[in-house]
Amino acid sequence: MEASILIVSKNRREDLFKTLHILDSLIDKTQVEVLVFLDGCTDDSVGLQNELTWVRWFVSPKSIGASAARHRIYPLAVSEILIGLDDDAHPLNEDFLFKIETLFKKYPNVGIIALEEIKGIYPSDIEALKEAESEKKEFLSSEFIGCGFAIRKSVYNQTNGFPVWIDIYGEESCLSIEVLAKGFDILYSNEIKVNHRVNREQRKLVKQNYFRFGRQLKNATYYFLVYYPFPLMSILKLYWHNLKKYALSDFGYCKIYFKTIFVVSIHIPKILKYRNPIDKNVIVKMRKLSSLKF
After folding, report:
1. What is the pTM of this model?
2. How far apart are CA 153 and CA 156, in angstroms?
3. Quick one: pLDDT band at residue 206, thresholds 50, 70, 90?
């Protein structure tokens, strides 16, 4: 196999179907495998198995979370190049596989390639590409965005993989710091572009930002507890920042803020079982690297 494409989906049948339909037109299925994990779907996503038999399907009747789902299927891929996509994201380059292979060959120490994310819903890929950066950009980054990236399987296998102690939002940071700690680089390249078909206005209407706020605050706390040699100061800065910027300005954020403190305090003993402090020099190096906008 030339590459493995891996997708986790939960209750987004139409988005998933569109992504798989586009991939079907872009890949040679004798050289590229597609693995899809359905994470506790209660819609008719499971029915896609009968329509798209070329996909390797994995189904969990109960939701285990996006990160744990990734943790489960990534070791099952057979290729050296693993490409992660969200269920509502698709490549905009017809030759995206060739470009990914070329970059990995050009930079042997690169473990992860972060792709350019073009966020929004567009009438066509041509319209989406108009939003892309016109100037070529490549630089070493401190992390990647999960909607579109590629990682060497041999590098992924040297890490603990996507964390099972995070449900969603923040798992990319965990894999990133472990890859950097193993001495590999993360390369951002806008040569390969992904359309992340996110309706930002609709998400605001359903209070998606509240959900994301709570998950990111909780998971950032766990991230510091697991990876930082001395996490207390970083955690205090995290909560002070979120108190000033969010909790004191909005009652909804305020409720989630204090609920998160309660939830975290209960689960600290469980999270500490996964403690894996990273050398402080890696953290210093990581802070000097460019970061991507999520």
Report:
1. 0.94
2. 5
3. low
